[in-house]
Amino acid sequence: MSPLSKMDRRRFLLTSAAAATSLRALAQSPAPQTAKLTLHHDQTGPTIPANFIGLSYETQQLSNPDFFSPHNTGLIAQFRALAPNGVLRIGGNTSDVGWWKPTPTSTQPPLPANVTLHTPAGEKSPMDLAYAVTPQAVINLHHFLEATGWTCLYGINLGSSTPARAAEEAKFVAKTLGFAHQGGKLEYFQLGNEADGFPSRFRLKETWNAEAYLDDWLTAAKAVREAVPDARFGMPDVASKTAWFPTIADKLAAIGKESEIAALSHHYYFTGPPSNPKATLDNLLKTDPRVARDGEIARAAAEKLHTKFRMTEGNTCYRGGKPGMSDVFGASLWAADYCLQLASLGYAGVNLHGGDGKAVADSLGGRLPGDDLVTDDPATHPHPYYTPIAHIGDKYLLEPVAYGMMFANKFSGATIIPIDFDHGSVNATAYAAKYPAGHTQVAIINKDEHAEISLTLDGFKSACEHVLSAPSLTSAQVDFDHFNELSNFTFTKPEMAAAKSKKISPNCTTESAGKLTLTVPAATAILFTLT
C-alpha cells in the first residue's frame, strides 16, 4: 500500500464510532444484486488527455508570493501525488478584484468608468477585498509549476480593470511562464470569472447579457493580443449560463476569432449554499441531468469554433462546501464519478475548486457559510470544506475529493469505450476505456449506501488494481489501495481489513475458462484491467 493510500490519521478517531456502526449494518446487508455490463470494443469515444485532472484556486493566492512557490514543498508534494501532469486554474471571484503591481511603488488604480459596484447582502464590498499581484508572485508560480510538472490557466481581471492593465499583466505572465505548446507552463488566459454573475458585483443588470459581455471581452482580448500576439483564451467561464455558449460561438465564428479560443469553459457546483436542504450526500450521489445537458451544449458550441471545452471551476456545494457532505468519503465517490462522466462526454479537463480558507472566504465576501453548520471541532475540517488539498497547520493533506480525482486519473491517456450497464435499482455507474498498449480498464462506482452488486464478464482475465473505499459514506478516512494479485476471496465490508492485510484483490475472481466474476460492495469504487 502506498503511503498516500490513506488520509492523515488526524481525523480517524473522530470517525471510529460511526465506522463501527456502519460495519455492523453492512454485515447484515442482503445478497448482492446482479448487474450486467457489456463493452462495445468496436466503438470508440473521446480520448482522455494526459492532463485531464486539474485544480482551481483563487487568484488571490498570488497575493502571497510564497504560496505557489518552489519553497512550498508540502503543496508541491500533494500536487504531484494527485496527478503527475495536471492543470492549475487560477481565477475565481477574486480574479476580478486583483490588480497588477508591476513595481514596488505602483499604487492601486481607480475603477474604470464602466464599473457599477454592487455589494451582495451580508458581504463586504468587492473592492474592500482588493489585493495586488506582483512580478515575484508570477516568477515563483513558474518555478512551482516546474516542480509539480503541471501547467496553468491564468485568470486576469475583467470585472474591475481596463484592457491596458490586462495587457500589461498578460505580457509579463506570458514572458515568464511561456506557452505550454512551446514547452512552457501557460495553457491560455482567462479574462474574467463568472461574467454571467457580473450584475451582482460589477455591471448594470438592465444592460448586461451575453452580447454585452462579449463586447467587453473582445476589447480586452484585443489589447492582450497586441501585447502578446500568440495569446489564446478560455472563455466565457460562466457560472451556470451555458445558454450563452451558442450566441458567443456564433458571433466569434462570424468575425473569424476561432484561432484565438483555446477552450470554451464553464463552472459546475452540484448545489448550494450549504444551508440549502438539497445539499445532502444522498442527493449528491444521484445522477444530475444538468451534467449531460451542459456537456452537450458545450460540445456543440466548441465544434463551431473547432476548439475544446473544459469545466474550469466546480465542486460539491458552492460557497465553500458543506461540512459532513463535502469533506467525507461520499464526496470521493462523487468526484470519481463526476470526473469520469465529464471524460466520457468529451471534456478536455476538469478543475475542482479549493485552496486556502481565507482566499475562498474572501471570494465570498469575507466568510465561509459552512462554518455556521459545524458542531464539532472546526480543526478537524478542511477550510474550505470542499478543497481537494487542505492546508492545516504546517501540513498539506489530500482530502476526500482528491481521492476521487486520483481514481479517475487512472483513465488519463485512454480512449473511452461505450458500454451498456444494467445495474437495476442500485445507485452505481461504470466506465471503460482502452489504452494504446491494448489493455482495457473498467471502473465500477457503487454509490449505494447499502446494496452490493455482482457481475460476470465472459472471455476475460483481470487484475483488480484499485479499490476506493471507506468505513462509511460519512467517514473522513478514505482508503485508496492498489492490489497486484488475484484471489478467489470475495469480500463484504466487515472483512475489508483482513483482505487488505493479505495484500490481495478482495473482489475479483478469474476462473480457468476466462470468466471474470466480481462483487462490488456498497459505497465502494473499483478499477480493474481486462486482458
- Residues in β-strands, percent: 15-25%
Let me know the number of strands: 24
What integer is the average pLDDT? Answer: 89
Could you list the spans in which at least 5 consecutive residues all have pLDDT below 50?
1-28, 484-506
Number of helices: 12
Overall radius of gyration: 23 Å
How does the major sheet shape up? Answer: 8 strands, parallel, barrel
Taking the alpha carbons of the first and last residues, their distance comes to 24 Å
User: What spatial form do the alpha-carbon principal axes imply?
Assistant: globular
Cross-sheet strand order for the largest sheet: 3-4-7-8-9-10-11-12
Q: Roughly how much helix do the residues carry, as a percent range?
A: 25-40%
Structural class, by secondary structure, is alpha/beta
Short description:
The chain is α/β, with parallel strands linked by helices and 531 residues long.
What distinguishing features does this structure have?
531 residues; 12 helices; 8-stranded parallel β-barrel; globular; 6-stranded antiparallel β-sheet; alpha/beta; 27% helix; disordered N terminus; 24 strands
Describe this structure in words.
This protein is of the alpha/beta class. Helices cover 27% and strands 24% of the residues. The chain has twelve helices and 24 strands. The protein has helices at residues 12-27, 73-82, 135-148, 163-177, 210-227, 244-254, 281-284, 289-305, 329-345, 357-363, 400-409, 496-501, and strands at 33-34, 36-39, 53-58, 87-91, 98-100, 131-133, 151-156, 186-191, 233-238, 261-271, 308-317, 350-354, 389-392, 395-398, 415-416, 419-422, 428-434, 440-446, 453-458, 462-469, 479-482, 508-510, 515-520, 524-530. It has an eight-stranded parallel β-barrel with strand order 3-4-7-8-9-10-11-12, surrounded by seven helices. A six-stranded antiparallel β-sheet has the order 15-17-18-24-20-21, with helices on one face. A hairpin with a 2-residue loop joins strand 13 (389-392) and strand 14 (395-398). The longest helix is centred in the middle third of the chain and has 18 residues, at 210-227. Residues 1-28 and 484-506 have low confidence and may be disordered.
